[in-house]
Amino acid sequence: QIVQQAQEIKSGEKIYKAKCASCHGDKGEVETYGLSKKLKDMSLDEMKTAIRDYEIKEKDNGMAILMEPYLMVENDIEKVYKYLQEVNK
Q1: Alpha-carbon span 14 to 11, nearest angstrom
Q2: Would you report the helix, strand and coil content of the chain in percent, each value rounded to 5?
Q3: Model's pTM, two decimal places?
């Protein structure tokens, strides 16, 4: 269980650094373009909803086009969330 959790956090770190950090900061601490909530302060449900809304084009505060290449499956969102929880302890 602990090994699996560590692997998920490491995987989440890799995904986060590749897809999120350049705009949202090293630890999810940046309110990107003054429009997004800090990722580190979002619940898992909020993160899933935000990604889903960008994906189905329900949410467009001008950032949907920028988010398109960074959309991810639910399992990856969970890993990113776990990584952010760990790195912001």
Answers
A1: 5
A2: 70, 0, 30
A3: 0.90
